[in-house]
Structure formats: C-alpha cells, structure tokens
Amino acid sequence: MPGDSSAMMPVEPPKNTPKTVAEAIEQVVMANRILANEGVLDALGHVSLRSPENTNSFFQARSISPFEVTKDDILEIDLDGNLLTKTSMRPYGERIIHGAILKARPDMNAVFHGHPAAVIPFSVTNIPLRPVTHVGGFLYQGVPVYDDYEQDGGMLISTRQEGERIAKHLGQYRAHLLRGHGCDVVGESLPHVVASAIYMRDNAAIQLQALQLDKQVKYLARDEAKRAMEVALFNALPLDRMWNYWVARVKKNMPDMR
User: Fold this and answer.
1) Above pLDDT 90, what percent of the chain?
2) 120 lies in which domain range?
3) Most buried one in 72, 122, 211, 217, CB count within 10 A?
C-alpha cells in the first residue's frame, strides 16, 4: 500500500528531544537557522514543532525570514491555526498547513513547508520524485502531488478547509509536493524533519542530474529504500551527528548564534 507506514523499525528519538517549552522554542529557532543556512529555506517557508507540554499546540516563528528567527519571534498556535501567544506579531498565513497536518497525524510532531527549487520540476511533470540515494530512502512510499488549490487563493494554503485537504492528501506519507509551489514534510521530531527536508532537496537534485545522463535511472527498490531510511535517518546515532554538524555550521556562519 503506497502510503502504508507499518512494519517499520521503532523510531529512535534524538538525544536532544525537547522536554520543556523553553527547549522546544530553542530547537525551533535552530531548525529555522539550519534550513536557511543550508539553502533549503530562503525568505519564505517555515517549520513547526508540537509543544511537549500541550499536544494540541505547536511552536512556529512569526512571519519573518527563517534566516532571522530568534526565540523572541516564536509563537504558540493551536491546531486550528489560532494564535495562543498574546502578541501583536503576525503569524504565517500558511500556519494552517502545520496545524492541519499535526491534527491529522498524532504520530508526528514536526512539519516543514518550503519551496526548494530542485523539487519543483517533479510537481509539474509526469516524472515522480523517487529515492535515488540512501539518505533519500524516506521517500520509499512515493511522493504524491497535491493539485486542489482554491481558485482565488493564489496557490497559498490559508484556509482551514484547504489545510484539511492538504492533510488528507498527505495521508500516511512522509512527504508530498504541491504543484508549482513546494513541498510538505512531516516527522517524529525536528531533527527528523530537518534531515528529511535537506535530503529531499538533495535527492531531487541528484535525480535531475541522473535523468540528464540516462533516462534509465536505477532507483532504490521500495524495501531497499525503507531499510536505508531506518539505518540512516531513523537511527539516533547518525541523526544526532547530522544535527550537531548542521548546528556547528550555523554557529560558524551566523555570529548571533555562537
């Protein structure tokens, strides 16, 4: 079954899984900075984390470039997209995506929405995005393409009804594409989502390069990709190593994060 996530190895939580609101906020800040530093997010896009103290809410930055996010920019939002933080700061309009997915997927705790250029071609052609690298193995279920935009929405997801359609379309998949727009990725933790977003971008770029060399690309078989995912991304040891590497790069490149 394409979206079936059964029979997987248990997901090992990263060592730095937040246990308090303060820790969660710090990790949301770092996730934004990592994704900006790695070129996965630019002025647009966002990431969220379910609150460790209230499963019906999540933390997300205000409407600001991910490159600039600090702990003072983090808002608490409920799963219907209502702002819980008492503030005049404006939230992202597409926070609806995060709330709807987290509501539909109680097994997941973090969501990424962004527009990596490398994934867009697979949303507007008949060539599906498929795993070609071991770190792209989490795409083993396939990557469906959403194309049910509201007529006057400008291809942005800003209504509760469309958020629900997005969540329904994602279903039990770990990622999907939005035609001509970008992608959504879901994960058990922010390190899982950050790693998945980075390697989804890289897998797409490598697949594009491979297709230019030879139309007969040797993709990972479903079981092979699934096992690669369990070893590379769902194993706490390499996942912590990845996270620490990206954190070190942020601290080197962003003076205010040292």
Assistant:
1) 89
2) 21-257
3) 122
